[in-house]
Write a structure and sequence with these properties.
The complex is a heterodimer of chains A (about 375) and B (about 90).
Chain A lengths: L3 E6 L2 E8 L2 E8 L4 E7 L6 E6 L5 E6 L7 E2 L10 E4 L14 E4 L4 E7 L5 E6 L3 E4 L7 E2 L1 H4 L32 E7 L7 E6 L2 E5 L7 E2 L21 E6 L7 E5 L2 E5 L7 E2 L9 E7 L7 E6 L14 E4 L7 E3 L17 E4 L2 E5 L5 E4 L7 E4 L5 E6 L1
Antiparallel strand pairs in A: 1-2, 1-30, 2-3, 4-5, 5-6, 6-7, 8-9, 10-11, 11-12, 12-13, 14-15, 15-16, 16-17, 18-19, 19-20, 20-21, 22-23, 23-24, 24-25, 26-27, 27-28, 28-29
Chain B lengths: L2 E4 L1 H6 L8 E2 L5 H11 L3 H5 L10 E5 L2 E2 L15 E6 L5
Classes of the chains: A mainly beta (about 375), B alpha+beta (about 90).
């Protein structure tokens, strides 16, 4: 199969393709627009882009001719009556300002896309709504099982529900402190099972196609909470990745370290090793052949979101997180300050690719052992996906 | 009939409107937006959110006066009005 990389950036969509054996980028659409995520529906072949137009709001764009032309898709909207509790923003700590406020929901951001083998399409959004489409994106429905979850206050359509929310916000909401769904992993064996990750709430799982959802935060630790192991401590997964061959293996790059689950997210254990630079970061990728092999692109810390000692490396484990290697060959090791966002690392076979906020894009054809620079001057890279 | 002028940016998304004289049957801003939606399906969701409110970074003027009701768009429009839909510049 011919490999291609779909790249979403702050200023447009790019394709990276092999031309005479070398990876080459080209502009593929949406010039000037923020593109949070680009992906291909593997069932129908349609390409999808999640746009953020700034003034004009979040829009879904699609291409049925493999990227030659793009058009606005039927737009995803929060239904009439959908309300949610806004967690108190961190800046408002004065007397009487700590209570959540109930307000109508409107779409702030389209953050990620996913597709099940059954043809269902998923869209993760801010303010924390999961939307699904059963007809290839002709129409979308808000998943009510998750939206009305007791952890968000229950059914708020007609009343105040239970009066509070255990979901907190993300600065990615760009202006409003409200949660976002950034990871959706559909079990390839059973598309009724879906894991999602929320900043900031943690991981939730459905086993019945989205009718009911359960929290899956056991074993996570939230260092900035009085009770770090509380399942609703405000856990902040930055990304999760499920091993398709054995979906019991799930990886998580969290704000507070790297976590691995061997039991389908029922329990997590911390596998970070700060001594080798593996702790803070955003993306995680898991090998398609072995659920114990994963890659990260670590940063220094949450307080210093840059490379570690100004040299860029990818971290790889092949033993479930017991040990980590720093893979630096071909990556800049001086004056490099690249940050790699949560959707900007991906793999297919032995090929890996990642893009950074400084517009660099790197590809490895040998499982990360060595890297080739494909681009240096792209806009800040938001997403990198093979398709 | 009220005349509508759009920022250039919107022609990028709705090229069929470019170069056209846009006159619509409307007595309020809400009716202006509804009429524009009939001309160019999808445009209302560029200008307003799904609750029908003007987006935070969108401005609508009647003549030189900025509309006051951004939530329900009740500002009245006269047959001689010129309505401008533009992006709000927030500095920078």
């Amino acid at each position: 199969m011919k490999q291609r990389i779909l790249v979403g950036t702050r200023k447009g969509t790019f394709f990276v393709e092999r031309v005479n054996g070398a990876w080459q980028p080209r502009l593929a659409g949406h010039i000037g627009a923020g593109v949070n995520y680009v992906a291909r529906d593997p069932v129908r072949g349609t390409l999808w882009a999640a746009l953020g137009h700034g003034h004009w709001g979040a829009k879904l764009s699609r291409s049925s001719d493999d990227g030659a032309t793009w058009t606005d898709a039927p737009q995803l909207k929060y239904p009439e009556g959908a309300r949610h509790y806004l967690p108190p923003p961190p800046s408002e700590t004065g007397p009487g300002e700590g209570a959540p406020t109930l307000k109508p929901a409107t779409l702030l951001k389209l953050w990620c896309l996913a597709f099940g083998k059954d043809g269902r399409m998923y869209v993760g959004t801010i303010p924390g709504g999961l939307f699904t489409s059963e007809d290839g994106g002709e129409s979308f429905a808000l998943n009510r099982g998750l939206w009305d979850h007791e952890s968000r206050g229950g059914d708020l359509t007609t009343g105040p529900g239970n009066g509070t929310t255990k979901w907190f916000g993300t600065p990615a909401a760009e202006g409003e402190f409200t949660p976002g769904i950034h990871s959706i992993e559909v079990d390839p064996r059973d598309p009724q099972r879906v894991l999602i990750a929320v900043s900031t709430a943690g991981v939730l799982e459905t086993m019945d196609g989205g009718r009911t959802w359960s929290v899956r935060n056991r074993g996570l630790t939230m260092d900035y909470s009085p009770d770090p192991s509380d399942e609703w401590a405000g856990h902040d997964p930055h990304a999760i990745a499920l091993y398709p061959g054995q979906p019991e293996h799930v990886w998580q790059q969290n704000h507070c370290g790297v976590f691995k689950s061997d039991d389908g997210a029922a329990t997590w254990r911390k596998v970070s090793v700060p001594e080798v630079g593996v702790h803070f970061g955003f993306p995680v990728a898991v090998d398609a052949k072995n659920g114990r092999t994963a890659w990260l692109v670590p940063g220094q810390s949450d307080m210093q979101r840059t490379t570690i000692d100004s040299g860029l490396f990818v971290a790889r484990t092949e033993d479930g997180g017991a040990t980590w290697q720093q893979l630096r060959r071909g990556l800049p090791q001086e004056n490099a300050f690249d940050v790699v966002y949560r959707h900007a690392l991906h793999n297919q076979g032995d090929t890996l690719a990642f893009g950074s906020t400084t517009g660099n894009l790197f590809v490895s054809d040998d499982r990360g052992d060595s890297w080739t620079t494909v681009a240096n001057n792209l806009p800040p890279v938001y997403s990198v996906r093979f398709a | 009939m009220p005349q509508v002028e759009l920022t250039r940016h919107l022609y990028q998304f709705f090229p069929t409107l470019e170069g056209r004289r846009l006159e619509v049957e409307a007595t309020s801003i809400a009716e202006v937006i509804a009429a524009m939606e009939a001309l160019a399906p999808g445009i209302a969701f560029y200008v307003c959110d799904e609750r029908g409110r003007l987006r935070q970074h969108v401005n609508v003027f009647i003549g030189t006066a900025r509309v006051t009701d951004r939530a329900t768009l009740t500002d009245p429009v006269e047959p001689s009005s010129r309505v401008s839909i533009i992006q709000a510049l927030s500095g920078g």
